[in-house]
Amino acid sequence: MSLILVTGGVRSGKSQFAEKLARDQGDRILYVATGIPCDQEMKQRVELHQERRPAGWGLVESPYHLDAVLPKAHEYDAVLLDCLSSWISNRLIEVPEERIRDLQTARQIREDLLHWLASVRRLPIPVIVVTGEVGLGGVAMSRLGRWFQDVLGESNQLVAGEADEVYAVISGIPWRIKG
Fold first, then answer.
1. Averaged pLDDT of the chain
2. What is the model's pLDDT at position 72?
3. 66, 103 in Cβ contact below 8 A?
4. Which whole number is the average pLDDT over 61-67?
5. Which of 45, 98, 169, 173 could form a disulfide with 8 if both were Cys (CB 3.0 to 4.6 A apart)?
6. SS3 call for 133
7. Nearest Cα residue to 72 out of 31, 100, 37, 104
8. CA atoms within 13 A on the CB side of 106
9. CA dist., res. 106 & res. 117, Å (int)
10. Active site includes 74?
11. Residue whose C-alpha is closest to residue 4's, from 130, 172, 150
12. Is 159 helix (H, G, I), strand (E, B) or coil?
């Protein structure tokens, strides 16, 4: 099994590059979608991803529970998770405002991610993870935005540390930075 992390900014081309990596693994790909189409703009983004994917790829929509895909993974040549940033965003946006920066919530996300990574390591197929890079931008203006940056930044570091390969995609150009 190999774990591949693809990171980059918004609209950097990271998803397209991850899809190419997945196609290189075979025809049977399990696409794990974490985005929630909560408004018209997000619906259009989801539709764009759907149009790009081959019709034969499997799909699991799992905005809150990464482990939900693991039992089905053995039926495929690779798993493509798009994306870790949305999964974390989904988890944090559910927290009431008075609990923003709640240490227990951040710990639970970290534990869930570590458990998922341990489970992924036991899979006999490659797993490709797409995530947004928060380390190159400015500090968010809202408390929730800063919390998201902190939790995602730590999560990205955890996954990158476990990954066999890491790519950063900038302006559509992938750079291999690990592996």
1. 93
2. 86
3. no
4. 92
5. 169
6. coil
7. 31
8. 16
9. 16
10. no
11. 130
12. helix
Task: Decide: 117 and 162 in contact? Cβ < 8 Å.
Answer: yes
Whether the predicted pLDDT of 46 surpasses 90: no
- Regarding predicted confidence, which is higher, 49 or 17? 17
The SS3 assignment for 41 reads helix
Measured CA to CA in angstroms, residue 125 lies from 4, 26, 37 at distances of 11, 11, 29
Q: What contacts 111, CB < 8 A, 6 or more positions away? A: none
| Cis preceding linkage at 38, omega within 30 | no
CA 104, CA 127: separation in Å to the nearest integer?
Answer: 28
Q: Model's pTM, two decimal places?
A: 0.93
Strands (E) in 93-162, as ranges, are: 127-132
Residue pair 19/179 in contact by the 8 Å Cβ criterion: no
Classified as helix, coil or strand, 158 is: helix
